[in-house]
């Protein structure tokens, strides 16, 4: 999997590297990143599908207002990926509809 993060430039240091599981796949992230940031860095653009038409949704506003980035985090559906920081061992599932994984 390609890491799409910008290279560091000395003034800002990334947090400690952690591992989270996304739909059964291990993904490397850094403490201080949001789940949305880690997904985007891994090239994952679709975070959920809508209930009625199964349309793809992903990161839109990035500040918790639009609710397009909903995912299931550690079994809890309807979690805004842009508002939750990664943690080591976290389990993330891309959400289908109202939150059934």
Account of the protein in words:
The chain has 101 residues and is mainly β. The chain has a single domain, classed as 2Fe-2S iron-sulphur cluster binding domain, sarcosine oxidase, alpha subunit, N-terminal domain (Ubiquitin-like (UB roll), Roll). The chain is 7% helix and 31% strand. The protein is built from 1 helix and 7 strands, in the order E-E-H-E-E-E-E-E. The chain has one helix spanning 35-41, and strands at 17-22, 25-30, 48-49, 56-57, 70-73, 76-80, 91-96. Strands 1, 2, 3, 4, 5, 6 and 7 form a 7-stranded mixed β-sheet that branches. A hairpin with a 6-residue loop joins strand 3 and strand 4. The two termini are 23 Å apart. The mean pLDDT is 92.
Q: How do the helices and strands line up, and which of them pair or pack?
A:
Elements: E1 17-22, E2 25-30, H1 35-41, E3 48-49, E4 56-57, E5 70-73, E6 76-80, E7 91-96
Parallel strand pairs: 1-7, 3-7
Antiparallel strand pairs: 1-2, 3-4, 5-6, 5-7
Features:
31% strand; globular; single chain; 1 helix; mainly beta; 7-stranded mixed sheet; 101 residues
Brief sketch in words of this structure:
The chain has 101 residues and is mainly β.
| Low-pLDDT segments | none
CATH superfamily: 2Fe-2S iron-sulphur cluster binding domain, sarcosine oxidase, alpha subunit, N-terminal domain
Mean pLDDT: 92
Helix content: under 10%
Task: Based on Cα principal axes, name the global outline.
Answer: globular
Measured by DSSP, the beta-strand proportion falls in 25-35%
Largest sheet entry? 7 strands, mixed
Radius of gyration: 13 Å
Give the terminus-to-terminus CA distance: 23 Å
In DSSP terms, counting alpha (H) and pi (I) runs of 4 or more, how many helices?
1
Instruction: Write down the secondary-structure element order.
Output: EEHEEEEE
CATH class: Alpha Beta
| Domains (count) | 1
Structural class: mainly beta
CATH architecture: Roll
Question: How many extended strands?
Answer: 7
What is CATH's topology name? Ubiquitin-like (UB roll)
């Amino acid at each position: 999997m390609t890491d799409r993060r910008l290279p560091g430039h000395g003034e800002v240091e990334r947090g400690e590297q952690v591992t989270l599981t996304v739909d059964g796949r291990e993904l490397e992230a850094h403490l201080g990143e949001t789940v949305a940031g880690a997904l985007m860095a891994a090239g994952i653009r679709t975070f959920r599908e809508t209930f009625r038409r199964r349309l793809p949704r992903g990161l839109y506003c990035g500040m918790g207002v639009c609710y397009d980035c909903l995912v299931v985090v550690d079994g809890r559906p309807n979690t805004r990926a842009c508002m939750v920081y990664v943690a080591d061992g976290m389990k993330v599932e891309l959400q289908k509809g109202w939150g059934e994984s």
